[in-house]
Amino acid sequence: MRIAFLYSSKNGMASSLQSRRYEETHEEDDPPLDFLAECDSDETIEAIGRALGERHEIVPIEANDEAYLHLKKLRPDLVFNIAEGLVGPNRESHIPSICEMLGIPYTGSDPLTLGICLDKSRAKEILAYHKIPTAPFWVVENGSGVSLRVKLPAIVKPLHEGSSKGIKDNSVVRNRPELKARVREIQSIYKEPVIIEQFLTGREFTVGVLGNPPNLEILPIVEIDHSQLPPGANPVYSYEAKWIWDQPDKPLEIFRCPAEIGPDLKHRIEDIIRKTVEVLRIRDWSRIDIRLDERGEPNILEVNPLPGVLPKPEDNSCLPKAARTAGYSYSALLHRVVDEAATRYGLNHGKRKHHRGDRLQLLRSRHQPAERAPI
Ligand SMILES: Nc1ncnc2c1ncn2[C@@H]1O[C@H](COP(=O)(O)OP(=O)(O)OP(=O)(O)O)[C@@H](O)[C@H]1O
Ligand SMILES: [Mg+2]
Question: What is the pTM of this model?
Answer without folding.
Answer: 0.90
